[in-house]
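In the previous chapter we treated chains in isolation. Here, by contrast, the input contains two separate entities that must be folded as one system, with a combined length of 809 residues.
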Amino acid sequence: MAREVVIGACPHDCPDTCSILTTVEDGKAIAVRGNPDHPFTKGRLCVKVNDYQNRVYSDQRLLYPMRRVGPKGSGQFARITWDEALDEIAGRWKAIIAESGAQAILPYSYLGTQGIINGLNVGDPLFNKLGASVCERTFCDSGSCTAYMMTIGHTPGVDPESFVHSKYIILWACNTLSTNSHHWPFIEQAKRNGAKLVVIDPVRTRTARLADWHIPIRPGTDGALALAMMHIIIKEGLTDRDYIDKHTIGFDELAERCEAYTPEFASAETGIPVEDILKLTREYATTPPAVVRIGVAVERHAGGGQTVRAIACLPALIGAWTHVGGGLLQLPIWAFPVNWPGLMRPDLQPETMRVINSWALGPALAGEMPLDPPIRALFVYNANPMAMVSQQQTIERGLAREDLFTVVSEHFLTDTARYADIVLPATTQLEQADIMFSWGHLYLSYNNPAIAPLGEAVPNTELFRRLAKAMDIEDPFFFRSDDAMIADSMDWSSPVLAGITLEELKQKGYMRLTMDAADAWAPHRDGNFPTASGKCEFKSSLAAGGNFVAPLFRQGYGGGQSGEPVDPLPHYLPPNESPRTAPALAERFPLSLISPKSHAFMNSNYGNLPAQVAQAGEQQAVLLHPDDAGPRGIAAGTPIRVFNDRGTFEAFATLSPDVMRGVVVAPAGFWQRSNQRGPTVHALTPTAFADLGHAPTFSDMLVDVAAA
Amino acid sequence: MAYVVTDSCRGCRYTECVTVCPVECFHLDEEMTYIDPENCIDCGGCAPICPVSAIHPSWQMPADKAGWVEINRLRAAETPVVNAKLPPLPGADERARRLAS
């Protein structure tokens, strides 16, 4: 029996990018486990990935190309060959381009795998070359990224491993134990070293339960808290004047702006008592090193961008950056010298591209958006919008269009893939090679393929090689091997890759970027912010150009930005939908709904697999405060309907005082066609963008709940 | 849902599990360890490093071990947390060899 252990890296859209050891016997993967040698992920995986081999060998896997043989959405398909599939795709695309122009084709993708060569940008060169519509992919952190760029630039920020040196840690809208769990031991070590841990969250999550202080906050009001913290810091003289003078711009204007944001104002908005706001601020400003870790959720409301602007100003105000373990942690991805232009190839684009935002898929497909030409072909990979994107019924109506030619590349017949005309089989991480960045630690990873591809599944890289050939493209760039693509994916001349070779990386599976060690990393001790001024910009110079989405999320396209005016100073925008801002709506729908990540699912990944579905409780659960459930006659474990004017979904009630009164929590990820048997939470989510970076606002909605 | 320590631990108590657990959810008595299901985050780190394969996820319990789900819940509530590795119980290696054979 041939037995070997292959080193790889987790492909999922998660900050942790775990080092994985796969045991292979006679060509079959029999187990995966965490790599005990990895300094950050330390031998553990998680509830999603512990049995990854069962995903790979699931009897639900798509292993061959298929063509639809029943009505759209019926899930009836018949096996065809790759040649037949490619001929049909290329034939339809060429005809559509000839009749309507390439903009009638819309690619649709995100981070079903986040490997650098198979992930976010793998299709960009082809669709840029064709001149298809650009899919502006603002699923996650786009508002935060715009705000972050405006304030402190694209800095990796605090090394997550430096948290062991922190003395005051604020996890702000971040349920670490469910969504970033390998960071937890560093936080726990800090606690052992005497640090105080504060969690700001509307829900007493499993992370909040382990904190020294959980501060419940009304959804979408975090900006008011951050602005009031600045008000107090300035008013009480808790600022680091030397740091402000040397390394920031716009302090006087910021101070003037913050005058109105009193603790009383913030208390009325957030529901946090004034004395708690004062205590939090004083402790934060006087307990160095102080660090804030923001999660992805903090941007998902009307003022999400300005919220991140305000939070990103806080560390400079108190000079937190002068300490190892002090500052802000958002996305350390910016430390990785990824060759983004080489991945996206914006140079291949025609002069102007048509941009369609990912959250507008429903209206774009269903003819509810003025589009000339209309979308006639849709190509979906690394994404399952029917489960995860707002206006679910509208998307369904669009996908059901007889004249829409839809191709979906997938592991499984997802809610989206059921509507495809052609389905293509994609490999899992065990069947493909990739190089991985991380947005939660500072190790570059290499994923060695552990097994041969199953059936006729291909990696996304091979998929796009085949599509380029079928579309008669001759440029050799489109036909590079995976090895060549991996070699081209990074700027190997960057100092952070000094001493790192691909050969060694393949063998070790991960290597730390060549930066100061975690016990010395203080990137902004002397300023050096990657902004236009080189300083922390309380008053942002980038605001002059108006609202924008980072080109990384738009296939590298910089044109056609929405450009609405942006206030150069942080300010508070209340939620669109809350009892305070929309009282008439709240008469009918009095509860605020948030839809965080499920502990057992990775977005909609695993929403069809038995082990994770079991751990998610078999059915969609919605958490309610007993005081909200009682008057509605809702008992624990009973079926309920959750609804607003946009839609309805069914769930089972979980009752606990862990959630604030007036707030309901519906973790996302179940599929319509697996256990949910009907619309998911995204049938109710709003379509409005947050103020910056076209972030979604799906933690900013009112609903009501009734016994079913 | 949680991971569950079963009777294979009894008499060995290697406590390798404790070194990998990120949330201090292991408890112990004189004979073995128990996992607190309220704190376990299902990370699965403990199962593969147990020298006697005593730890299973609660949704994949061998049929003859199903009763240990409840025993872990009850005993974890009554026993102290263990957050550092201890020496195994006397005779553990001999017992582990027997279990493996």
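The mean pLDDT of chain B is 92. Chain B touches chain A through 16 residues (CB under 8 Å). Compare these points with the single-chain example from earlier in the chapter.
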